[in-house]
C-alpha cells in the first residue's frame, strides 16, 4: 500500500530520469527508515516512520543534483553544482552531520572580474490559456577589461533548455560566460512545464508543447525589456534538440508586431514533430503523445505546430548547427528547412559536423559552433567579431546588416 511519508514540504523532490540510473532520492542500504532526498537542490535525510527530515546547508549558490550513500550507509555523497565554480563531490557524515568537500572536477578558471552571476527572475505568463508564472536566470554582461557606453543596453540571448521538460541548469557553464564576457546577456529560461517547480507546474506542458513554451519565451524576452535590462532591438534566442524546436517555433509563430527576436540559432532542433513521433528512439517512444497529442490520430496538431510546414511565416535570420550522425533529429529535417528558407530569401546559415550526433561531444566542435554562433550574431546585430575557425556561409545576407528598429520602447 502507498503511504505519504512527508507532505508538508512544498518543494520539488524529483526530476525527469533522462539518464539511466539517475535518482534524486536514495535509501540508506543499512537503515531502512532513512532516505536521502533533494528538496529544490538542498540535501536532507528523511525518516520514513516519522516523516521528519534533517536538512543540510551547502555553500552560497551551491545546489545538489545527485545523491548516493556509501555501501556501509555511513556517508552520503552529493554531486554539487554552482554557477560560480566547477562542480564537486561533497561527503556528509550521516552520524555527525559533518560536510566535507571530497573531490573537485576542476579549478576555478573564470576570474571574478569576468564572472557573471545569475539572478533569478519571475514574470507573468500570457493571460490566455493557463496564466501563471514563468522563470529564468538572468546573467548580465561582465568583463573587467571593458565598460559599455553610458546609457546603452546590452543584447540578450535567451537560452531554451531541452527535454522539453528539463530545466535551466545552475551548474557553471562556460558557454554562458563566453557570451556574457563578450557583452551579450544570457537569460536561461524555465517556461511552464519545466522541472523544479512541482508536479502541477510540470504537468502544465502536457498537450501544450509548442504553445506554452513559445508564449513564455516571447514573454520572457519582453519582460527583460520592460525591466530596462536589455536592448529591445537586440533580442536573440538559441536552443538544442527540443530547445531548438522552441527556438524555431518562436521565430515561426510569433504574432507580435514587430517580431520579438532579431535572430536565433537552432542546434539539432526538431523541425517536423510528426517525424519525431514516427522515428524517435525507444526510450522516448510515445512521449510526444503526452506533450502534443495522440499520434497519428491527431497528426493535424503535429503539422500545425511544426515550423517546417510554415516556413512562409519565418521571417527573421536563423543559424542551424547539425550533426550528420544524428539519429534522433536526422539531418534531413534541418537541411530541408534551411534550403526552403534560403530559397524564399530569408537570411540563414547551415553548418554541419560529420563526426557528431545528437548533442555535440567533441571539444573542438563545440568551440567551432560557439564561435560560429557569436559570429552569426555579429553579422545580424552589426558589431565586429573575429572570424571563426569554421566557415559560416550566410545566405541572403544584406551588404550592410544593421539591427532593425522594433518600434517598441525600452522602459
Automatic annotation (TrEMBL):
Domain (Peptidase S9 prolyl oligopeptidase catalytic): residue spans on this chain: 173-382
GO biological process: proteolysis
Signal peptide coordinates: none
Entry GO MF terms: serine-type peptidase activity
InterPro entries: AB_hydrolase_fold, Peptidase_S9_cat, Xaa-Pro_dipeptidyl-ppase/CocE
Record Gene3D superfamilies: alpha/beta hydrolase
Name of the molecule in the record: Peptidase S9 prolyl oligopeptidase catalytic domain-containing protein
Organism in which the protein naturally occurs: Clytia hemisphaerica
Amino acid at each position: 500500500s502507498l503511504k505519504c511519508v512527508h507532505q508538508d514540504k512544498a518543494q520539488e523532490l524529483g526530476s525527469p530520469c533522462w539518464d539511466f540510473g539517475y535518482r534524486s532520492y536514495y535509501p540508506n542500504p543499512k537503515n531502512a527508515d532513512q532516505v536521502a532526498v533533494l528538496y529544490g537542490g538542498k540535501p536532507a535525510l528523511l525518516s520514513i516512520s516519522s516523516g521528519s527530515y534533517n536538512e543540510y546547508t551547502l555553500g552560497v549558490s551551491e545546489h545538489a543534483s545527485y545523491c548516493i550513500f556509501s555501501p556501509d550507509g555511513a556517508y552520503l555523497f552529493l554531486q554539487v553544482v554552482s554557477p560560480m565554480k566547477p562542480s564537486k563531490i561533497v561527503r556528509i557524515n550521516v552520524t555527525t552531520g559533518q560536510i566535507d568537500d571530497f573531490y573537485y572536477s576542476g579549478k576555478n578558471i573564470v576570474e571574478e572580474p569576468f564572472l557573471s552571476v545569475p539572478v533569478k527572475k519571475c514574470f507573468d505568463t500570457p493571460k490566455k490559456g493557463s496564466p501563471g508564472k514563468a522563470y529564468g536566470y538572468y546573467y548580465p554582461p561582465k568583463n573587467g577589461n571593458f565598460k559599455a557606453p553610458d546609457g546603452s543596453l546590452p543584447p540578450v540571448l535567451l537560452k531554451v533548455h531541452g527535454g522539453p521538460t528539463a530545466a535551466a541548469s545552475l551548474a557553471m557553464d562556460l558557454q554562458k560566460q563566453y557570451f556574457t564576457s563578450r557583452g551579450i546577456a544570457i537569460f536561461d529560461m524555465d517556461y511552464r512545464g519545466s522541472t523544479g517547480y512541482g508536479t502541477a507546474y510540470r504537468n502544465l506542458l502536457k498537450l501544450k508543447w509548442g504553445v506554452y513554451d513559445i508564449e513564455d519565451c516571447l514573454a520572457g524576452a519582453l519582460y527583460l525589456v520592460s525591466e530596462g535590462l536589455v536592448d529591445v532591438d537586440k533580442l536573440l534566442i538559441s536552443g538544442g534538440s527540443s530547445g531548438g524546436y522552441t527556438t524555431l517555433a518562436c521565430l515561426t509563430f510569433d504574432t507580435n508586431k514587430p517580431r520579438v527576436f532579431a535572430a536565433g540559432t537552432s542546434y539539432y532542433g526538431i523541425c517536423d514533430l510528426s517525424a519525431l513521433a514516427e522515428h524517435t528512439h525507444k526510450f522516448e517512444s510515445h512521449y510526444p503523445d503526452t506533450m502534443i497529442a495522440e499520434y497519428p490520430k491527431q497528426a493535424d496538431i503535429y503539422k500545425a505546430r511544426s515550423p517546417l510546414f510554415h516556413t512562409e511565416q519565418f521571417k527573421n535570420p536563423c543559424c542551424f548547427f547539425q550533426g550528420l550522425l544524428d539519429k534522433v533529429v536526422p539531418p534531413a529535417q534541418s537541411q530541408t528547412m534551411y534550403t526552403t528558407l534560403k530559397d524564399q530569401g530569408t537570411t540563414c546559415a547551415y553548418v554541419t559536423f560529420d563526426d557528431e550526433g545528437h548533442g555535440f561531444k567533441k571539444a573542438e566542435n563545440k568551440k567551432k559552433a560557439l564561435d560560429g554562433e557569436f559570429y552569426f550574431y555579429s553579422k545580424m546585430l552589426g558589431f565586429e567579431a573575429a572570424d571563426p575557425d569554421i566557415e559560416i556561409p550566410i545566405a541572403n545576407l544584406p551588404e550592410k546588416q544593421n539591427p532593425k528598429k522594433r518600434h517598441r520602447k525600452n522602459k
